[in-house]
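Hello,

Our lab assistant flagged a job as stuck in the queue for most of the afternoon. It eventually completed. Since we weren't sure the result was trustworthy after the delay, we are filing this so someone can double-check. Below is the sequence as submitted and the structure that was eventually returned. Let us know if re-running is recommended.
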Amino acid sequence: MPSTPDSRAGWASYARALTIRDHAFIDGAFQPAADADTFPSINPADGTVIADVAACGPDDVDLAVAPARRSFEAGSWSRATPARRLTAEETTELFSSTTPAASSCWCQSSRPAPDGTA
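-- returned structure --
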């Protein structure tokens, strides 16, 4: 895993290298919206389009809810204790592997950089 950037230039470089997923994640796979419609996700700092993402509608909701319902009714998730759902080790691994990408997307899509610059 690459190191976490520690400067604005480092974050900008990291963000340029990211692969932005523009499809919905439904039933374990990325897929376009059922009607193939998209909408632009805009960077509020500079007005640029980050990505055109799937504009999911009612058909996509149905596609997502069906496997979620099956999983819930199977009980392996719904009856598990919170501690069983995600152990401390899994939490650490999850954040270690996603935090730089999540931070970059968060910074680009929601607020200025921590140093106060856009």
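-- support follow-up --
The delay was a queue issue, not a problem with the job. The result is valid. The first strand starts at residue 24 and ends at 26. Residues 8-110 form one domain.
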